[in-house]
Design brief:
It is built from 13 helices and four strands. The protein has 255 residues and is α+β, with helices and mostly antiparallel strands. A four-stranded antiparallel β-sheet has the order 1-2-4-3. Strand 3 and strand 4 form a beta hairpin.
Length: 255
């Protein structure tokens, strides 16, 4: 999702190629939508879009693409529907806002005298260095928190990290299910075992021992993991890796 919007001729723009990649569409379909759109905005087309070409990295041939400003993108994206499309639209809006703010600052700077520009650049660089150091310190602290997870209070700490991963992924029931399923699958792979089978067997043993059905039904794969020290170690390691992989420390820094 990086570089959704770029600066070109002192305005914030994006391209049909970037739109196709972001919204997971074929580029020729995006061009088709733009061609259909052109029929309705013929007089204003030049204010919203302009054509260019790009070199394909594989066959080195030149192909058509279209640049568009914020208004052009808005007209095009109106036809993109769905929850995922809405999420991408919001990210595009933020990217346009950020780029236009950046351009405005650059234009304001160009009106300063050389002496004031130098002073402003020095102050800006100092602020950037301080922010970078602060973010680095917070990043180290957050990663240390993840790495510090051990097997002493593993259930509580692992659950806290998993919940943070779920929040990064949207904090939905589907995300919660997906994250835990992926973690258990990886534990199965590393342990060369099946947590599902062990869970079934554990419930059967408890039934034979006269344990109530409600208590058996409340058992989870984490309960199975707790029976085996090696599984606990594997589970803790996998949860740590997921927390780092999904940028939990970045989420903590953004708070």
């Amino acid at each position: 999702m990086d570089n959704l919007v770029i600066m070109k001729e002192q305005q914030a723009v994006t391209t049909s190629l970037q739109v196709a990649e972001t919204f997971e569409k074929r580029h020729d379909h995006v061009l088709r939508d733009l061609d259909e759109l052109k029929e309705g905005v013929t007089q204003n087309w030049g204010d919203l879009f302009w054509e260019d070409t790009y070199i394909h990295p594989q066959n080195k041939q030149s192909y058509r693409m279209i640049f568009m400003n914020r208004d052009g993108f808005t007209l095009l994206a109106m036809g993109f529907t769905g929850k995922k499309a809405l999420e991408f639209k919001l990210k595009y809006i933020k990217a346009f806002n950020d780029m236009e703010t950046h351009i405005k600052k650059q234009l304001d700077m160009s009106n300063l005298s050389p002496e004031l520009q130098l002073m402003a650049n020095l102050v800006n660089n100092m602020a950037k260095q301080e922010l970078a150091q602060k973010q680095l310190n917070e990043k180290v602290d957050s990663i240390s928190e993840i790495v510090a997870l051990n097997t002493t209070d593993w259930r509580k700490e692992a659950n806290a990290l998993i919940n943070k991963v779920v929040r990064v992924m949207g904090n939905t029931a589907e995300a919660h299910k997906e994250v835990r399923s992926a973690i258990f699958t990886e534990v199965d792979r590393r342990a060369g075992a099946s947590l599902e089978t062990r869970l079934t067997n554990k419930r059967r043993r408890m039934a034979d021992e006269g344990t109530s059905k409600s208590k058996r039904d409340n058992l989870t794969k984490v309960d199975v993991i707790s029976d085996d020290k090696k599984l606990v170690e594997i589970y803790v390691a996998v949860v740590k890796e997921f927390a780092i992989k999904y940028g939990v420390y970045k989420r903590e820094m953004a708070k």
